[in-house]
Amino acid sequence: MADDATIQCGKCGRLVPAAMFCDNCGAPLAPASPDTPAARREAAAERDERNGSVAGGEERETTMEPIAAPRPREMRMPPSPVRPTDMQSDCDALEFSVDVSRVFVAGATFPLKVRLQSSGLELRRVKVEVATDLPGGGALRSGQTLDRLRAGGVRELSLDLSLPEGMQGEKTFRWSVCLERDGQPCRFEADPVRYTIYPGDASARKVVEQVVFNIHTGHASDVNIGGKGAAEDFFRSLRGGDGSVRELLDRMRNAPEVWQALPLHECELTLLDTAPPDAAVTGRLTLRAGQTLFHLIAGPAVQLGRNRQCELVTRLFSAAGAAEPDLNALLSRVHARIECGTSGWTVEDGGINPEDGRFKASSGGVFVNGQRVAPGVKSPLPLNRPFGLTLGAPAVTEPRVMGFDAELLTCERWNGADCPVAARCDRKRPACLLLRRRDRVPERFALIGCACAPGLSVGLPELGSLRVWRVRDAFAFKCGDQTGWLTPGIQLRLSGGTQVAVEGFQQWGL
After folding, report:
1. Which pLDDT tens digit goes with each residue over 263-321?
2. Whole-prediction pTM value?
3. Are 317 and 323 in contact (CB under 8 A)?
4. Rounded to whole angstroms, how far apart are CA atoms 181 and 94?
5. Rounded distance, CA 14 to CA 8, Å?
6. Taking a C-beta distance cutoff of 8 angstroms, is the pair 404, 436 a contact?
7. Disulfide: which of 5, 114, 344, 368 matches 18 by Cβ 3.0-4.6 Å?
8. What is the CB neighbour count within 10 angstroms for residue 217?
9. Domain spans of the chain?
10. Handedness of CA 15, 20, 25, 27 (dihedral sign)
11. Cβ distance 397 to 408 under 8 Å?
């Protein structure tokens, strides 16, 4: 080998004399062609041949080259600098880059890496989120928040994303960035990035062959590492028998990051981009429209009973407005428990006594459409149609039975164009159980489940144009063109002139 031959170290990135080990960091050196004029001319000729061109400018048909034998595991490419973008960014305070050197596989968890570099401003509350559409509807997302990014600072974040089985092919990933600049909140969206997701049952050999073929033919939408030749060499080095594609992912963790700068486009802030005021953070609120009370109760489980520690207190009143003991004899202190879980909404006869923590069934029973719910059994509530819920007897045949007209409301029914967070809704599922008392007490209860993120929407039919969302442990609203947070003391004017007062939670007669 010539005395002036050099090689680039895969660990420290320096050009050092060609030898077995790097004289700078001591790492083993992978075999490479010497850096001589003849070697450079030979490498250029090989690149031209791979690109399908000849000296006379004629096009040569591209064919798939055979996969070479694996190279030593020590071979690693040096980190690549950030590739600039030709697009103009609306955010001068932040350079946003994503790592485009990953291979994505269905049924596996992998990190999406981003790089944030501040200019001359200190940025606060920098929130990065990535989302992609799921095959069955909804979206899969992941995000992280930095409390502070100093002026000129650089931070790298890793956002874990778990793709379900069966999700494969080319998918679009959408990036958004929210931050505070000079005390003002701002929101930006980046150009979408498309990645190829490979099936989880594929062999590592087939995935590598497909990646190399995509690179060779110029269709490498799934990966781009340091240029065509370097990318081919890198993936050939990963090929190791017919192991599983998840083994390939483990080896890919050694891949160096390749940063691609993406332009950021400023867009309108939504409710999810701002923090609610302290006065809005609550699990229960009351909306008063004339003499009618609409109670908002949030949580995965709501207990109904005479005990005042229940989320929904059940009391029957005489014509004079008194809660007489005889009227409430069939109602237990903890009578029923309603839950919103991953399998849907259920009702249970009885509940957990808040005083001693023990479960106890009711004395009068819980009935759905006249059918008694077995004590201790979580019975599913009917979907897509109104139903009756009674406490104490199968039907409201006497004043001592408490009855509700009930209906499950879903996000599909109430969001869409009217929902300010619909674009980021993760799931389409029943969002709210609406209960309307059958007696003369003018009360409605909206039990809003909190199993979904980022927020659940519900429309209250009797309040017309008003829409309510459960977001960040608070209640947000949309009324016409106005959106905001529901806090006690504010007044809302609905279409048609109806006035709605927002009050602290207070049931009728209690």
Report:
1. 998 887 666 667 788 888 898 999 998 889 999 998 888 999 999 999 999 999 998 88
2. 0.54
3. yes
4. 10
5. 5
6. yes
7. 5
8. 12
9. 6-50, 80-269, 272-504
10. positive
11. no
